[in-house]
């Protein structure tokens, strides 16, 4: 399975919505997670099961989709959300499990 | 709160063996249905990822077939640590190495270490 994320870079004004896309080359059901990675930090789990927020994740982060098309939405971008975001499928193993990432910047 | 911390050399010579340790705090490598994984991220290949393998809390071990023959994952349950050995290192193995946990297989990684950069160079 190949995971393709778009766009590669997303520039969004503070308070605006950011929409990130992840596409799987074949269906993965709802077995899709989203991670946030800031420079020098461990990846942080945001979403699992395509739409369930992990513990402690702010409500401005939401996930949707199933099968091959998935979306991560940040409803109101904050400065602390600047990071690279990755999707990970866990329907098939061993994986080509992660997408190549979307870098979110402040416009 | 589960915390994982990688440790090991930052520089390895070609053909040598890489040995990394992951120390687990706030959880136990012995208990629960947990899978203790090694994953790496290549800095120069568009930040691509590769899953290396896992050791299950109940003992089984599974490796990425692409690394079969070079990789060994083991555990010291008394120290709450697990380990990665990767032989015959080349420049292509230069990456940030992470340890991470899953609670099922296959599943998402719910806890990660900070990662450790390993550079292969003479």
Structural summary, described in words:
The complex is a heterodimer of chains A (107) and B (122). With 107 residues, chain A is mainly β. Helix content of chain A is 0%, strand content 49%. Chain A contains no helices and ten strands. In chain A, 36% of the residues are buried. The model of chain A has no long low-confidence stretch (mean pLDDT 93). Chain B is mostly beta strands and 122 residues long. Helix content of chain B is 0%, strand content 49%. Chain B contains no helices and eleven strands. In chain B, the strands form two sheets. In chain B, strands 2, 4, 5, 6, 9, 10 and 11 form a seven-stranded mixed β-sheet that branches. In chain B, strand 4 (35-41) and strand 5 form a beta hairpin. Chain B is globular, with a radius of gyration of 14 Å. Chain B starts with a strand and ends with a strand. The model of chain B has no long low-confidence stretch (mean pLDDT 93). The chains are: A mainly beta (107), B mainly beta (122).
Features:
heterodimer, A: 107 residues, mainly beta, six-stranded mixed β-sheet, four-stranded antiparallel β-sheet, globular, B: 122 residues, 0% helix
Order of helices and strands of chain A: EEEEEEEEEE
The rough form of chain B would be described as globular
* Helical percentage of chain B: under 10%
Q: Which two chains share the most extensive interface?
A: A-B, 24 and 22 residues
Give Rg of chain B in angstroms: 14 Å
- The side-by-side strand order for the widest beta sheet of chain A comes to 2-10-9-4-5-6
**Strand elements of chain B, count:** 11
Low-pLDDT runs of chain B: none
């Amino acid at each position: 399975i190949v995971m393709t994320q778009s766009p590669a870079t997303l520039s969004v004004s503070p308070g605006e919505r950011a929409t990130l896309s992840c596409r799987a080359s074949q269906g993965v059901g709802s077995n899709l997670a989203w991670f946030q990675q800031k420079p020098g930090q461990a990846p942080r789990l945001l979403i699992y099961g395509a739409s369930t927020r992990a513990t402690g994740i702010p409500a401005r982060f939401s996930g949707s989709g199933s099968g091959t098309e998935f979306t991560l939405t940040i409803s109101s971008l904050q400065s602390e959300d600047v990071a690279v975001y990755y999707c990970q499928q866990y329907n098939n193993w061993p994986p080509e499990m992660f997408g190549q990432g979307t870098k979110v910047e402040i416009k | 709160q589960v915390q994982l911390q990688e440790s090991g050399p930052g520089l390895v010579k070609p053909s040598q063996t890489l040995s990394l340790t992951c120390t687990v705090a706030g959880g136990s490598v012995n208990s629960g249905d947990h899978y203790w994984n090694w994953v790496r991220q290549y800095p120069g290949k568009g930040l691509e990822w590769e899953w290396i393998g896992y050791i299950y809390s109940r003992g089984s071990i599974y490796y990425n077939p692409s690394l079969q023959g070079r990789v060994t994952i083991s555990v010291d349950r008394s120290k709450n640590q697990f380990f990665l050995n990767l032989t015959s290192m080349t420049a292509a193995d230069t990456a940030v190495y992470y340890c991470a946990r899953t609670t099922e297989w296959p599943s998402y990684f719910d806890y990660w270490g900070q990662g450790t950069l390993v550079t292969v160079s003479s």
